[in-house]
Amino acid sequence: MRHLLLNTLIKQNVYRLGCNRYSTLQEPKEPIVKSKAIPGPKSLELKDKLDAVQSTGTIQLFADYEKSAGNYICDVDGNVLLDVYTQISSVPLGYNHPRLINVFKDEKNLKTLINRPALGVFPGKEWPEKLHSILMNIAPKGLNKITTMMCGSCSNENAYKSIFIWYQNKVRGTAAFTEQEKCSCMINQAPGSPQLSILSFKGAFHGRTLGALSTTHSKYIHKMDIPSFDWPVASFPQYKYPLDENVAENKKEDQKCLSEVEDLIEQYTKKSNPVAGVAIEPIQSEGGDNEASPEFFRGLQSICKKRGVALLIDEVQTGGGGTGKFWCHEHFNFEQPPDVVTFSKKLQLGGYFHNDDFVPNEPYRIFNTWMGDPGKVLLLEEIIKVIQEEKLLANVNETGKVLKDGLLNLEKEFPNILNSTRGRGTFLAINCTNTNVRDRIITALRHTGVQTGGCGDISIRFRPALVFKKYHANIVLDRFRTVLKSL
Ligand SMILES: Cc1ncc(COP(=O)(O)O)c(C=O)c1O
């Protein structure tokens, strides 16, 4: 009977937040903070238990995902926090969205979820249609191929491999692999394992797996003790804010960084370690929400085209609508599509879009067991429908304006604490005087019921779900003001 009731409520899309899992889930009017500190006692107890078998140094709290709803995340101590961090920018529709819960009420979909295939070998009969109708439907303009993967790091990792294969195909032409190439690659030697590089930028974050890590430069702790490739690292523009008052200076900064890219490409060609690809985030996220202008990105693309280097745009964090466009690089008005666009997070599975040139010419060159997850694609299908039906990109732009204007006002009100509000849509950040002040603000915000995140050394980042509304933004701004006054 109770199950019947739940099914009916879910079918009617009625969902209200509550302790009883059979009641409907609804967002509270405002955050609820019950424990004296967060993490509270129950979170700490669970942390101890987990600590016995797994490292817990990064854990902020233990969530109760049964009770979390919409923009609010519940923890095991009864705190209900307005979540503007959303699992490091990974929750497009908030928690327990009824449309997503419905997906697995359909037994056909449930079977897709539980019979997870090795997609490269035994894909299900629905897979080609799903890729065409769901993933190619959101493909960046001009890219007609996709390689599905697992997470952000492994998407970049495999995309780099695709770039190297593409580069060597150009060098080799139509000739077959030589015997020498076949033997030498087996012992990590040239010519089979050639010296090739990926150029990345200071402050970048492209993941923590072994190859991707050579292009990550946001924090030493990610890299310490891990061997790295000798790959070039260029300066990313560092702008003066507000942007409209520092146009000439920031333009010079763009030029300086672009010249450095050209110099490095030249330098690495000369030392026989040519640059095959450039990897860049549309907004450097982990590294501190550093933006670069559309002119910078177009200049970078033109250098890449001139030098025969592939341009990879890493949209792992920016992709999926948070910047007010589905792909952040749509803001740049590129003359031609980028060569490779990687994604993960809000899109549920990982992967990269590309064109025919980046399809390996032989099987098993880009491959792993899962190569994505059809269950996640079912969720993505529903997410995209909701984004379109509920015009969530327009919502992001409207709410983003409220949040950004509010942050700019706070910056004026507290000039000794805050500066450099920036970002697009609701993908926003603000700088604090120093790391200590930033960390104190994030902790204090959490204790007033607002979950934000830090990035870089001194920035607070905002990564709400696409269903974050103006009234949510006003709650965040009110609580932020209270915290700033208390400092
Ligand atoms: C821009 C970017 N690239 C790659 C990654 C790595 O993704 P994952 O943590 O899923 O491996 C991240 C993660 O935050 C990211 O922000």
Structure, explained:
With 487 residues, this protein is α/β, with parallel strands linked by helices. The protein contains 15 helices and 16 strands. The strands form four sheets. A seven-stranded mixed sheet has the order 3-11-10-9-6-4-5, with helices on both faces. It has a four-stranded antiparallel sheet with strand order 12-13-16-15. Strand 15 (453-455) and strand 16 form a beta hairpin. Helix 6 packs parallel to helix 12. The longest helix has 24 residues, at 247-270. The chain binds pyridoxal-5'-phosphate.
Summed up, what is this model?
With 487 residues, the chain is α/β, with parallel strands linked by helices. It contains 15 helices and 16 strands.
Main features:
alpha/beta; transferase; binds pyridoxal-5'-phosphate; (S)-3-amino-2-methylpropionate transaminase activity; 4-stranded antiparallel beta sheet; 2 domains; EC 2.6.1.22; 4-aminobutyrate:2-oxoglutarate transaminase activity; 15 helices; 13% strand; Aspartate Aminotransferase, domain 2; Aspartate Aminotransferase, domain 1; disordered N terminus; 487 residues
